[in-house]
Design a protein that fits this description.
The chain is of the alpha/beta class. The chain has three helices and eight strands. The strands form two sheets. Strands 1, 2, 3, 6, 7 and 8 form a six-stranded mixed sheet that branches. Strands 4-5 form a two-stranded antiparallel ribbon. Helix 1 packs across helix 3.
Length: 151
């Protein structure tokens, strides 16, 4: 799975003028499933994201995880993370999982993240809407942007 994490002060996603997910301080995760991905890969991605130390400790060093700071997580599906631009000026998205598989894995990521993050007593996990035309609003904190690939 491919993911792009952005540390945010706040973020929300809208579909047709309706806010479908919103968080305060935490992480915005754009996520893309690939054809060889399965629920085990989704679980590894969620575990990595929740433990990744990208928040400042008292000394100002990135030493705290999302779970440590109790931040929110906003998960948005984005198949364009699999873009291949090597063949010209129009990206190919053939490296992304087919829509049915992508939807199932996106829903797995949300379910797994909600369970794990709630168990840690942290803030909520919100999501966008798979396959929808979304507007994603964020206030990037840092900025801190981390690409992840989990196999």
């Amino acid at each position: 799975m491919l993911a792009l994490l952005q540390r945010v002060r706040e973020a929300h996603v809208e579909v047709a003028g309706e806010t479908v997910g919103a968080i305060g301080p935490g992480l915005l995760m754009l996520v893309c499933a690939e054809p060889d991905d399965d629920e085990a890969v989704a679980a590894r991605l969620v575990a990595k994201v929740l433990k990744l130390r990208v928040f400042a400790d008292d000394a100002g060093k990135m030493n705290r995880s999302l779970a440590d700071v109790g931040g929110g997580l906003l998960v948005v599906s984005q198949f364009t993370l699999a873009a291949d631009t090597s063949g010209g000026n129009r990206p190919s998205f053939s490296a992304a999982a087919p829509p049915e598989q992508g939807r199932a894995l996106y829903e797995s990521v949300l379910r797994l993240a909600r369970a794990a993050h709630a168990a840690a007593g942290a803030a909520s996990v919100q999501g966008g809407r798979f396959g929808a035309d979304m507007l994603v609003h964020l206030v990037n904190d840092g900025p801190v942007t981390i690409p992840l690939t989990v196999r």
